[in-house]
Amino acid sequence: VPLVIFKREKEIARKLEFEGAWLIDQPSENNSWLLSYLSREWHKLVISSKSFPDSYWDKFVKKKVRNKYADQFDYDELNRFLGMEKTDTPGKFEIVKPIETGLWGKIKSIDLRYQIWKWGVIFTDNSFLYVFFYFLFSVIGNYTYFVFAIHLLDVAISVKALSTILKSITHNGRQLLLTIMLMTVVVYLYTVIAFNFFRKFYTKEEDEEREENCKDMFTCFKFHLYSGIRAGGGIGDELESPNGDPLELYRIVFDITFFFFIIVILLAIIQGLIIDAFGDLREQLDSVKETLESKCFICGIGQDYFDKEPHGFETHTTAEHNFANYLFFLTHLLNKPDTEHTGQESYVWEMYQSRKWDFFPIGDCFRRQYESGSGGTTAES
């Protein structure tokens, strides 16, 4: 749970500081505009709370945001948005947390806005929900043993290849949902036609039992949605033959068009979306794997350049441009006070704060410098 809160606070703090999110209107990055809007408004709730950020390491992010955007927005409005109140010093705003003593004082000091946001984040986090329901089914399984069978789905989550298959269903989720909605609408249109003109074909009599599958609109729609879509040849496979009936020609057109639009086109589109999504995900994974195995992550120079010498690429990626060393250095800067930075550390830290990555030696390395006789660069050294 602390990691979930930290990651979400980090996401909000960085978007707020570097992108001006929630201050400047920005278009949605994905097609799920409704979910994006709800998420945006939900995270906006916590920005003005006095406890934010609680888990994120940068406790001065609100001051940084205020100083950065003070020229673009009204100063008082900006402070109210960030939850910063006036202090005794004229014109100075700070985050004021009341100090309370005693049990009632502790209860009053609880930041309700932050706690509501916090529990909302927890119970909408996929990792937490997975572990929570896994534990819940484990408890219920002690009373109803068949519930333990649900735990077999853990295989699909644990094995990466199977999890990719599951992601293929949600990868094009919006298009998939809209296609299903369109198919439901088309089925309803056929239901209306059937209910008004072909209702007699939906009555079956077997062993003196009369089964009316289109006695009302709801029953008729349910029959088309369940039996018509599942039937390999469409709704015509589930109805009485129209041979010799005055409406025979119209029934043939009805059955064939249902089969063509529902079975051939719409169901094929749904299957195609899932298959294409699986193919896209697999290509992405293969592309990332191939890139990491054939290019240096830090400088982007290909393996062929280094393998002119034995084990050249391996030596370069483990000794010269080891990704772990760069990660360690950035972590070191995050935990070191700004006043204690060296000249090079200040240079990298300022770039990191501005989200500029010029300190990475893109397209450059010691070997290339030695070959050109230029010596080492400041960033590389």
Automatic annotation (TrEMBL):
<protein>
    <recommendedName>
        <fullName>Ion transport domain-containing protein</fullName>
    </recommendedName>
</protein>
<dbReference type="GO" id="GO:0005219">
    <property type="term" value="F:ryanodine-sensitive calcium-release channel activity"/>
</dbReference>
<dbReference type="GO" id="GO:0006941">
    <property type="term" value="P:striated muscle contraction"/>
</dbReference>
<dbReference type="GO" id="GO:0034704">
    <property type="term" value="C:calcium channel complex"/>
</dbReference>
<dbReference type="GO" id="GO:0033017">
    <property type="term" value="C:sarcoplasmic reticulum membrane"/>
</dbReference>
<feature type="transmembrane region" description="Helical">
    <location>
        <begin position="252"/>
        <end position="275"/>
    </location>
</feature>
<dbReference type="GO" id="GO:0030018">
    <property type="term" value="C:Z disc"/>
</dbReference>
<feature type="domain" description="Ion transport">
    <location>
        <begin position="137"/>
        <end position="284"/>
    </location>
</feature>
<keyword id="KW-1133">Transmembrane helix</keyword>
<keyword id="KW-0472">Membrane</keyword>
<dbReference type="InterPro" id="IPR015925">
    <property type="entry name" value="Ryanodine_IP3_receptor"/>
</dbReference>
<dbReference type="GO" id="GO:0014808">
    <property type="term" value="P:release of sequestered calcium ion into cytosol by sarcoplasmic reticulum"/>
</dbReference>
<dbReference type="GO" id="GO:0005790">
    <property type="term" value="C:smooth endoplasmic reticulum"/>
</dbReference>
<feature type="transmembrane region" description="Helical">
    <location>
        <begin position="175"/>
        <end position="198"/>
    </location>
</feature>
<dbReference type="InterPro" id="IPR005821">
    <property type="entry name" value="Ion_trans_dom"/>
</dbReference>
<dbReference type="Pfam" id="PF00520">
    <property type="entry name" value="Ion_trans"/>
</dbReference>
<keyword id="KW-0812">Transmembrane</keyword>
<dbReference type="GO" id="GO:0042383">
    <property type="term" value="C:sarcolemma"/>
</dbReference>
